[in-house]
Design goal:
The chain is an all-alpha fold and about 180 residues long. It has nine helices and no strands. The chain has helices at about 5-10, 15-20, 25-40, 55-70, 75-85, 90-110, 115-120, 125-145, 155-175. It is elongated.
């Protein structure tokens, strides 16, 4: 918001006229940059086929990947900006949601619907279960990083949160 088009052009190494030939105003430029960043978010991948891993181990890998993304500088910056600007740019909020939470939720739901996962888990609504797993991964650690209380959580803490998320998820969904 505080940057002038002159400053943006200088930092990008282009002329102001070049910027205006692509974007009618600063808001459109801002949206284009954030949409490109959201596209990068959707490229974040994690192991979903499980290979030779057990369902529990696959869930652990999924949880650790999500937590690592949530705590990354990129993940935190995208979350902050998209939440802050969603009122002014509702399409940005939709793009962020579609490229991250919705896309990841569907991929996790696909795994939960797989024969291997269905053999071990009693999941009736895989999209809801996928969202619940993601919410378990956010836990307090994400808030501590988001609010600057904790900068770089140790790997052991990330592993602990992932492990507890899996245990809680399995307590609800494991076949008995």
């Amino acid at each position: 918001e505080g940057a002038s088009v002159d400053e943006i052009a200088r930092d990008a190494g282009v002329s102001k006229a070049t910027l205006y030939s692509y974007f009618p105003d600063k808001q459109h430029l801002f949206l284009a940059v954030l949409e490109a960043e959201c596209a990068q978010q959707s490229e974040m991948e994690f192991l979903l086929d499980g290979g030779d891993l057990s369902v529990e181990d696959t869930l652990q890998v999924i949880c650790k990947a999500m937590i690592t993304h949530f705590l990354s500088r990129f993940g935190q910056d995208m979350f902050r900006v998209c939440v802050a600007e969603a009122q002014r740019f509702p399409e940005l909020g939709r793009t962020f949601y579609d490229s991250g939470p919705k896309r990841w939720g569907r991929k996790i739901a696909q795994y939960l619907d797989s024969p291997r996962a269905q053999h071990a888990l009693a999941v009736e609504d895989s999209l809801l279960a996928a969202d619940q797993l993601a919410q378990l991964c956010r836990a307090d650690l994400m808030l501590k990083v988001l609010f600057g209380i904790e900068k770089d959580p140790p790997e052991a803490e990330i592993d602990r949160v992932a492990s507890e998320a899996v245990k809680t998820f399995l307590a609800r969904y494991a076949r008995t």
